[in-house]
Amino acid sequence: MTKSKLLEMHNVGIVVESLGSAISFFQEIGLTLEGRMVVAGEWAGQVTGLKNQEVEIAMMVTPDGHTRIELSQFISPKTIADHRTAPVNSLGYLRIMFRVDNLDELLSRLEKHGATVVGDVVIFENIYKLCYIRGVEGILIGLAEQIGTQTATDILEKP
């Protein structure tokens, strides 16, 4: 049998309470709504282990078309846990990081959607101006504006 190869990272899933608010927030960052639909039925519950589920999803795509965020609002069963206010050193998924071209301008627009900067906007190694924000529904987002010619990949220790 031929060994499977990774082809691409397709999407990251985020469960939200208000699909409309989440769509608007991610559109403000610069993602485009690719599509929206209700997913329900036995097959869906078999995949997730939630048995009989009904969830409305929206697929948001980055401008380069390579990466997506799948936003999910569960109709049934209701959500049972909330990790949105966990600090950045919590175990599990941490955040999504986006590279943007004008961090200060974007922050002023995102504030109108309720976003707040978690700590400070900082300069990292003269490579990025960056910050973490709590966005719509408390979702943790990283934003980075490249300010030099290097990237973080350039300074990573290689094995």
SSE layout and pairing:
Blueprint: E1 11-15, H1 19-29, E2 32-41, H2 42-48, E3 53-61, E4 68-76, E5 96-100, H3 103-111, E6 116-117, E7 122-124, E8 128-134, E9 140-146, H4 152-155
Parallel strand pairs: 1-4, 5-9
Antiparallel strand pairs: 2-3, 3-4, 6-8, 7-8, 8-9
Brief overview:
The chain has 159 residues and is α+β, with helices and mostly antiparallel strands. It is 19% helix and 36% strand.
Task: Give structural attributes.
single chain; 159 residues; alpha+beta; 36% strand; globular
Describe this structure in words.
The structure is a single chain. The protein is α+β, with helices and mostly antiparallel strands and 159 residues long. The chain is 19% helix and 36% strand. It contains four helices and nine strands, in the order E-H-E-H-E-E-E-H-E-E-E-E-H. It has helices at 19-29, 42-48, 103-111, 152-155; strands spanning 11-15, 32-41, 53-61, 68-76, 96-100, 116-117, 122-124, 128-134, 140-146. Strands 5, 6, 7, 8 and 9 form a five-stranded mixed beta sheet that branches. The protein has a four-stranded mixed beta sheet with strand order 1-4-3-2. Strand 7 and strand 8 (128-134) form a beta hairpin. The model has no long low-confidence stretch (mean pLDDT 89).
